[in-house]
Specification:
The complex is a heterodimer.
Chain A lengths: L4 H14 L24 E3 L14 H5 L5 E7 L11 E9 L8 H5 L5 E3 L14 E2 L1 H5 L11 H4 L5 H5 L1
Antiparallel strand pairs in A: 1-4, 2-3, 3-5
Chain B lengths: L4 H33 L15 H11 L10 H18 L9 E3 L2 E3 L9 H22 L3 H32 L4 H10 L8 H14 L24 H26 L11 H22 L5 H29 L1
Antiparallel strand pairs in B: 1-2
Classes of the chains: A alpha+beta, B mainly alpha.
Chain lengths: 165, 328
């Protein structure tokens, strides 16, 4: 039937040889591959070293968001209640992760680097409500630690036009 | 020499359960082996080494809602998988797995039923089993099922001819249709794999096609058809069909061992079943190996190969064998 009977036989040798090699499967939940350094996972809000929030509630992130998943309600800082470094602060800051498309536009839009997208990507929940992350959750240290690849090894090299000038 | 009926009943019970267990773990071994041949692990989550996987699969299949299409012919739709599974299981009854033992006053023979026309019975049961596939596909009242069952029907009918003819050489050489006699004949001479090598090749290829295994798995052809005749089946009804398929494969492998590799024959006679199982496992391994290695045939290739290559070769083999047996 086959025009190359010996080639077919070779095929059998290949499959038999594979049988004695170690599988290359990575057992995912136990063994996590490091994510790319510029991976866009779950958001994180940041504080200054003195403990004040970087976010000043300007809502630029919400404006930039194509999925419309960020809700910011700003309030004035007062002398007794100083939350952020600026004039105003975000009284409510919510991200609906069931809508978020992880495009990173919020990160780009933010004038104070208050919001960044971090490495975490295991975001399943049993209820949609649980996917609405509030400000406290976004400010807290992430509970899950995702391995991130070595920046020197994997990050985008400096483009030639920048290296020259 | 006669056995009381209760020995038969116990034997049948034990064999059926062993067969079902073999089927369950064959699915695991197959998935494991195919996985390793593709540098994957295969199932390894349920229990150590995935040993509980077949049980998990069974629980899942049984608990699934057994629905059927509104227009299906209910009686036929439900009986079809049962028919296939039952005939597949029944076929194993005539296969001898040992030479028989004397225990006290009783004699326990090495098979459930020693039928003098065992081979014919086996093929007859196989043919009845095909009805399950055809009727099941038709009764589902779905175009996919109907086309799938037509394909199955055409394939099984055309390859059954070659399968039966390939065995003819062995029957002529042994001078008997009884599987026990055929094994006894191999005890005296060679295993029939050597003088009947062509027959063995034809038998094996036609057998792969008969059991709908890759590269002849066109009845299912996951990537082309939806799932062939079992499109509309789910839950344990699907499980029964797949059980029928796997048990057919075991029976065919057992038949291959019996006819061509001397059945229970081995270095130490009382350990007959062990040799039988060992040979059986090797043949099953070849089935699985074949599945990972060879891609699926096109339908016209399948038909051309069956009728233009396999059938003439099988016929020629039978004729030449007959001529030689008469001449010598």
């Amino acid at each position: 039937m086959s025009p190359q009977p010996f080639d077919s036989a070779k095929g059998f040798a290949v499959t038999l040889k594979q049988l004695f090699r170690k599988p290359i499967t990575q057992q995912y939940p136990e063994e996590k591959r490091p994510v790319y350094p510029r991976f866009r996972g779950r958001h994180r809000l940041w504080r200054h070293e003195n403990g004040l929030e970087k976010c000043i509630g300007c809502s630029l992130c919400a404006a930039a968001c194509p999925a419309d998943c960020i809700r910011v309600v700003a309030d004035e800082n007062t002398a007794t209640n100083r939350v952020s470094a600026g004039e105003r602060y975000a009284r409510i800051y919510e991200i609906n992760l069931s809508r978020c498309i992880f495009c990173g536009y919020c990160e780009v839009a933010c004038p104070f680097d208050a919001i960044t997208l971090e490495a975490e990507y295991e975001l399943s929940e049993y209820s949609r409500d649980d996917l609405i992350y509030t400000k406290d959750m976004l400010l807290a240290e992430p509970i899950k630690r995702m391995p991130v690849a070595d920046r020197d090894l994997y990050d985008t090299p400096i483009p030639a036009y920048k290296a020259r000038s | 020499m006669n056995e009381p009926w209760w020995i038969d009943a116990i034997k049948a019970f034990v064999i059926i359960n062993l067969l079902l267990l073999t089927f369950a773990y064959m699915t695991l071994v197959e998935r494991k082996l195919i996985g390793r041949m593709q540098l994957r692990y295969g199932p390894n989550r349920a229990g150590p080494f995935g040993l509980l996987q077949p049980i998990a699969d069974l629980v899942k299949l049984i608990r699934k809602e057994p629905f059927y299409p509104a227009t299906a012919v209910e009686v036929l739709y439900i009986t079809a998988p049962a028919l296939s599974a039952a005939t597949a299981l029944a076929a194993f009854a005539v296969i001898p797995f040992g030479q028989g033992w004397h225990v006290g006053d009783y004699y326990i023979s090495g098979q459930i039923a020693n039928v003098s026309i065992g081979l014919i019975l086996l093929f007859a049961l196989g043919s009845v089993g095909i009805y399950g596939f055809i009727v099941g596909g038709w009764a589902s009242d779905s175009k996919y099922s109907l086309l799938g069952s037509m394909r199955t029907c055409a394939q099984l009918v055309s390859y059954e001819v070659s399968l039966a003819l390939s065995v003819l050489g062995v029957v002529i050489m042994a001078g008997s249709l009884s599987l026990v006699e055929i094994v006894r004949e191999q005890e005296a001479n060679w295993w029939f794999a050597i003088p009947q090598f062509v027959g063995l090749l034809v038998f094996f290829i036609a057998g792969v096609a008969e059991t709908n295994r890759a590269p002849f798995d066109l009845p299912e052809a996951e990537t082309e058809l939806v799932a062939g005749y079992l499109t509309e089946y789910s839950g344990m009804r699907f499980g029964l069909f797949s059980m029928a398929e796997y048990i057919n494969m075991i029976v065919l492998s057992a038949l291959c061992v019996t006819l061509f590799f001397g059945g229970w024959l081995g270095p130490y006679e009382p350990l007959g079943p062990l040799w039988f199982v060992l040979k059986l496992l090797i043949v099953i391994f070849i089935f699985i190996w074949l599945r990972t290695t060879v891609p699926r045939l096109r339908y016209d290739q399948l038909m051309a190969f069956g009728w233009k290559v396999l059938l003439p070769v099988a016929t020629l083999n039978a004729v030449v064998t007959a001529a030689l047996v008469v001449a010598l």
